[in-house]
Amino acid sequence: MASSRYGRMKLSAEKQALLQRLLQQQGLTAQTEQKSIQREQTVPLSFAQQRVWFLHQIEPTSSNFHMLTGLRLLGDLHVDALEASLNEMIRRHDILRTTFPVVHGSPVQHIGPAYTLKLEPVVLVNLSEQEQKQEIIRTIRKDKQKPFHLESGPLLRVYLFATRENEHILFLSLHHIIADAWSMGILSQELSQLYDAFVNERPSPLPPLAVQYADFVQWQQERVQGERGNAQLHYWLQRLSDSPAPLALPTDHPRHARQGYSGHTFSFTLDAALHEKLIALCQREGVTLVMLMLAAFQVLLSRYTGQEDIAVGLPVSNRTRTDFEPLIGNFVNTVVIRADLKENPTFRTILQRVKADALDAYSNQDIPFERVVEALRPVRDPGRTVLFQVLFSLQNAYREQELTGLVCLPFEVEDNAFYGE
């Protein structure tokens, strides 16, 4: 059986076999593995968590790992139901109760008991609109400046502002060591389902989780050991041993000797007609939208740099088992996709090369990026990242928040700008 969010669809035996073979080629499983790996008293960190933990030790006051999401809620908000929904998610997901103490010189995961989060709205009703904006910006900036304490937690903070009689602003702030972009979608979906149930005085509709994040960590460590892990590492050593020269993007200022984090965001919109044409092209060429956009992006980088071997980092969800999909946690890994543009190939040729490279990368995504770097031992430059200098990410899993009886609008505070009008 193959399932979708629209229900279950029967496949013939031949199609089931083909689906299973295609999934296996990409390192995936079609069925949920029933056996939950037993956790021991001390749970190690996943490879992604090790990376974040290490960087946090270098810059403990940095806000680079703060994951902040905001919503404007219009309508009659039931604060008690919202509070109960958040507490049910804390009870349901071990990772939301996890801290990271150091034991015998190494960080470990400590899963604490369920705790009760008290949601107390900050009442701003009597302030002018400008004063409300200033107060919200001040609070969120304060959150960014307030470091998360990985050893003691909590690593989830919630802010609720009452701005008008039937209007609230909700912010969730998490540390990246316990969540990734996929996790934010799970938070959104579960919050919607739980709030709907609790507003209508029904029990939680969510099924028990088959495994927890700690089970993934145990599984991951076994996965990268032995023959399979060696084969995947060998693939990356072959693919990246002759990594291209760093991207020489033209800039209007000299490059700093060390990396910084003072970049900005530039946003633009592609119209619906162009999007439809891109989807049609994907269907004709047998590629995904990620592959198409990545190929176009690499061609663009080649035009700007004059280089013909373009390496770009691509984040992957790393949830290669179906029972990992509903879990909150930091699963993400990074793979490197190279585009060979020598001898001026057609874009269709480039696209098919990127497709082949991406499929191979997906099949070898279990090996953490850091282990690949350790094995390759590239020359280090404090002003650049190793193996790739540009990261490409297509965020195409956006899900609009829905809460019963409320209109939910995205709400963002970034630098000096105030969004949400």
UniProtKB/TrEMBL annotation:
<protein>
    <recommendedName>
        <fullName>Condensation domain-containing protein</fullName>
    </recommendedName>
</protein>
<dbReference type="Pfam" id="PF00668">
    <property type="entry name" value="Condensation"/>
</dbReference>
<dbReference type="InterPro" id="IPR023213">
    <property type="entry name" value="CAT-like_dom_sf"/>
</dbReference>
<dbReference type="GO" id="GO:0003824">
    <property type="term" value="F:catalytic activity"/>
</dbReference>
<feature type="domain" description="Condensation">
    <location>
        <begin position="40"/>
        <end position="399"/>
    </location>
</feature>
<dbReference type="InterPro" id="IPR001242">
    <property type="entry name" value="Condensation_dom"/>
</dbReference>
<dbReference type="GO" id="GO:0008610">
    <property type="term" value="P:lipid biosynthetic process"/>
</dbReference>
